From TrEMBL:
<dbReference type="InterPro" id="IPR029039">
    <property type="entry name" value="Flavoprotein-like_sf"/>
</dbReference>
<comment type="similarity">
    <text>Belongs to the azoreductase type 1 family.</text>
</comment>
<comment type="function">
    <text>Quinone reductase that provides resistance to thiol-specific stress caused by electrophilic quinones.</text>
</comment>
<feature type="domain" description="Flavodoxin-like fold">
    <location>
        <begin position="4"/>
        <end position="191"/>
    </location>
</feature>
<keyword id="KW-0520">NAD</keyword>
<keyword id="KW-0288">FMN</keyword>
<protein>
    <recommendedName>
        <fullName>FMN dependent NADH:quinone oxidoreductase</fullName>
        <ecNumber>1.6.5.-</ecNumber>
        <ecNumber>1.7.1.17</ecNumber>
    </recommendedName>
</protein>
<dbReference type="InterPro" id="IPR023048">
    <property type="entry name" value="NADH:quinone_OxRdtase_FMN_depd"/>
</dbReference>
<dbReference type="InterPro" id="IPR003680">
    <property type="entry name" value="Flavodoxin_fold"/>
</dbReference>
<keyword id="KW-0285">Flavoprotein</keyword>
<dbReference type="Pfam" id="PF02525">
    <property type="entry name" value="Flavodoxin_2"/>
</dbReference>
<keyword id="KW-0560">Oxidoreductase</keyword>
<comment type="function">
    <text>Also exhibits azoreductase activity. Catalyzes the reductive cleavage of the azo bond in aromatic azo compounds to the corresponding amines.</text>
</comment>
<feature type="binding site">
    <location>
        <position position="11"/>
    </location>
    <ligand>
        <name>FMN</name>
    </ligand>
</feature>
<comment type="subunit">
    <text>Homodimer.</text>
</comment>
<dbReference type="InterPro" id="IPR050104">
    <property type="entry name" value="FMN-dep_NADH:Q_OxRdtase_AzoR1"/>
</dbReference>
């Protein structure tokens, strides 16, 4: 059975992007895999709107043609996510959090009944059994520090939809010591390759 990777890049930079380089290298470790590419800079996603929210909360069998069309992109993004065995995400830290492009993707895939459901014990993710590797880069923010709101958030969101096997590969504090950061991340990528 073919292994499927959903490769998401969230960096606004299409050239000289550390996260794009790292995510591409992680994908390349799986040359036999089928790869679905979702480049959030090349094809920006819209913000959700009142029309989108109303369509999303309308029962499937009661949706108008306009509402179905409104949800089509979101449905496609969910299909990509459901088809993937592994997510590889290139995620820069912008102003201590995730880029707006990544937040737009999250808003469009967090769908009750599709990627999670509410139970009497609270929400339950519906995308269990998948793995995520998140390649993070930052200028000054140290991952895991009190000013890093990006990696805890992406872990939480992925866990919310059922993806709890999440590895963070961090080229953090690039403005402080890029050489040391890249050397550290080289070792992390090598370890991931050995574990695959």
């Amino acid at each position: 059975m073919t292994h499927t990777i959903l490769h998401i890049d969230a960096s606004a930079r299409t050239e000289d992007s550390v996260t794009r380089d790292l995510s591409a290298r992680l994908v390349a470790q799986n040359p036999e895999a089928k790869v679905i590419i979702r480049d959030l800079a090349a094809a920006p996603l819209p913000q959700i709107t009142e029309d989108w929210v109303n369509a999303n909360f309308t029962p499937v069998d009661a949706r108008t043609e306009v509402q179905k069309a409104t949800l089509e992109l979101s449905n496609n993004l969910v299909d990509e996510l459901q088809a993937a065995d592994t997510l590889i995400i290139g995620l820069p830290i912008y102003n201590f959090g995730v880029p707006a492009a990544m937040k737009a993707w999250i808003d469009l895939i967090a769908r009750a009944g599709l990627t999670f459901r509410y139970t009497e014990n609270g929400p339950k993710g519906l995308l269990e059994g998948k793995r995520a590797i998140v390649a993070v880069a930052s200028g000054g923010t140290k991952t895991g520090s009190e000013i890093d709101f990006a990696t805890p958030y992406i872990r939480h969101v992925l866990g919310f939809v059922g993806i709890t096997d999440v590895a963070i590969v961090a080229a953090d504090q690039m403005s402080v010591d890029a050489e040391a950061s890249l050397a550290r991340v080289e070792a992390e990528i090598e370890a991931l390759a050995d574990a695959a």
